[in-house]
Specification:
It is a single chain. With about 170 residues, this protein is an alpha+beta fold. About 10% of the residues lie in helices and about 25% in strands. It is built from two helices and eight strands. The strands form two sheets. It has a six-stranded antiparallel barrel with strand order 1-2-7-6-3-8.
């Protein structure tokens, strides 16, 4: 079976260096835009009613395909790739949760990007709390300390770029 995807748009933002934080969009305040290609703009109808979007993208600058990786913030142990959100995946598909600030034609103005400038966008879905939030979910190996390190490194990255980190 051969699976192919065609990007529907592209990310424009200040993040340009692979592997630099913020590592999760939830801890980012980076603003940017998602340019939707003209043939897909009709698909944005009614998107303006949502405060947040889920952006699926292609990690086009992933350096390798791996089945095990160390987390970017605390590389003490490798984990199976499907137990991480690392970009070096067999199918380098990424996910970002962003706040929708406004729509201008085929351009989505968003906050909370942790994607690199030029990242191809594969799909956009509305974030619906009743469907997408599972408060009692088990976080697996991801400890509160790990989340704290992600927050701290993301805050540092946002500060370095002149924007404050969003609080969880």
């Amino acid at each position: 079976m051969n699976v192919e995807y065609t990007p529907i748009g592209i990310v424009h933002c200040p993040l340009c260096t692979p592997g630099e934080p913020p590592f999760q969009s939830r801890f980012s305040t980076f603003k940017g835009t998602i340019e939707i290609y003209p043939e897909y703009v009709e698909g944005l109808k009614d998107v303006e009613g949502f405060s947040h979007l889920i952006v699926l993208c292609h990690f086009d600058r992933a350096q390798k395909r791996a089945l095990r990786e160390q987390p970017l913030t605390d590389g003490n142990a490798q984990h199976g790739i499907f137990a991480t959100r690392h970009f070096n995946r067999p199918n380098p598909i990424g996910i970002a949760y962003v706040a929708l600030d406004k729509i201008d034609g085929g351009t989505l103005h968003v906050t909370g990007l942790d994607l690199l400038d030029g990242t191809p966008v594969l799909d956009i879905k509305p974030y619906i709390p009743a469907f997408d939030s599972i408060p009692d979910a088990n976080p697996g190996w991801v400890s509160e300390e790990h989340v704290g390190r992600l927050k701290a490194s993301s805050a540092q990255a946002c500060k370095h770029a002149g924007t404050p980190a969003r609080h969880a």
